[in-house]
Amino acid sequence: MTHPTPLDIVIAGGGTAGWTAAAILARFLGNRATITLVESDAIGTVGVGEATIPQIHNLIIGLGLDQTEFLRRTNATFKLGIEFSDWLHPGHHYIHSFGQVGRGVGLIPFRQLWLRGRHLGVAGDYGDYSYNVAATRLDRFSTTDGREGKPTELAYAYHFDASLLAGMLRDYAEARGVRRVEGRIEKVERDGESGDIRALRLDHDREVAGSFFIDCTGFRSLLLGDALGVPFVDWRHYLPCDTALAVPSETRKELRPYTQSMARPAGWQWRIPLQHRTGNGHVFCSEFMSVDQASTLLLDTIEGDALGDPRPIRFISGHRQQFWSHNCVALGLAAGFMEPLESTSIHLVQSGLGRLLNLLSGDLSDVTDARTYFNRLSVVEWQRIRDFIMLHYVANNRNGEPFWDHCRVMELPSTLAEKMALFREAGTFVREEDELFLDDSWGQVMIGQGIMPRSWSPLADNVPAQDIGPFLEALAKACRIKAEALPSHRAFVAAMTGDALENPA
Ligand code: FAD
Question: 315 CB under 6 A from ligand 1?
Answer without folding.
Answer: yes
